[in-house]
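pinging the channel bc i need a second pair of eyes. not urgent but kinda urgent?? the chain im working w is below, pasted from the shared doc
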Amino acid sequence: MSENILVIQTAFLGDLILTTPLFREIKRRFPGSKMTVIVNKGTESVLEANPWIDQIIPLDKKQIKSSFFGFWNFCKELRKHNFTICISPHFSFRSSIISFLSGAKRRIGYKTAGFSFLLNERKPRLLRGPHEVDKLLSLIYSEEERKNISRQPELFWKSESVSGIQSEMKKNGLEKGNYILVSPSSVWETKRLPADKFKTVSKLLHEKTGLKIVLTGGKGDSKLCEEVGEDFGINFAGKTSLPEMSYLMSGAALLVTNDSSPIHFASAFNIPTLAAFGATIPAFGYTPLASRVFISEINGLNCRPCGIHGGRVCPKKHFRCMLEQDTDRMVEEGIRLIKG
């Protein structure tokens, strides 16, 4: 019997990209199955051309958090799909409720999920140690089965989705391998390397390699990117859709960023990655999966990590994890990564 599978992944964009190996492996594990994925509204275009997914349902989290009836109706509609298996890599209690109300007989998720008693196959999830992709794959595979499976995320796009960025790149003289992408933002302030440090690193990399510097981010990051790339950078912040961001990333010589979603875009295309980690630590499992990587961090600070996501302000008020980052070393490592 072919399965009708529901996957719930309404986490941040980076988590969704890291779930792409799981989508592929679900189709391999359950040949002939149909797969529907629920994602956070606004992130769905990153999966637009994914060959493994049959249907995408965007979920407006704000709406379901504010209206019980909205939530109830959403779940009622889901039931009509007659899902046989529900896999929930997301661990909010709402995801467990959606899983239960979907009507799927098999409901697979993590033991540590909120309301995990509503799931009937609960897998352990270590907070530290394994990479996030391994944690996700553990929902359907044993450790032994995972040994030879590719952990690389996969991103695809439709040609009509990237024609805009192609002409923008032409206008700015950007070709595969002749530019460095710099993404200085993050949702969480304590995950951000200060703008002046990003500026120093970007400017020196530009001068020493002759490569162009392209700044990327969301609409709200335009000012920050302007500051970082003042006089030498090309500012694309707020000007790219998610498929366009994928396309832009696929041609970069190097990515310079924080512990945030651009890392995972880069991993999908094996782009060398220089990442500054501050409030968070690599052991949480969100490190780059590209083959050439350097993680810049301040070791020996007993206050790290100060949270799973980092926070708005440094709880110790000194922010040493970012203020003490060595920009000279970052430039040196960036050049090494580009040269391979």
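so DSSP finds 14 helices and twelve strands in the chain. and Residues 14 and 264 are 6 Å apart (CA to CA). — does that match what u expected or am i reading it wrong
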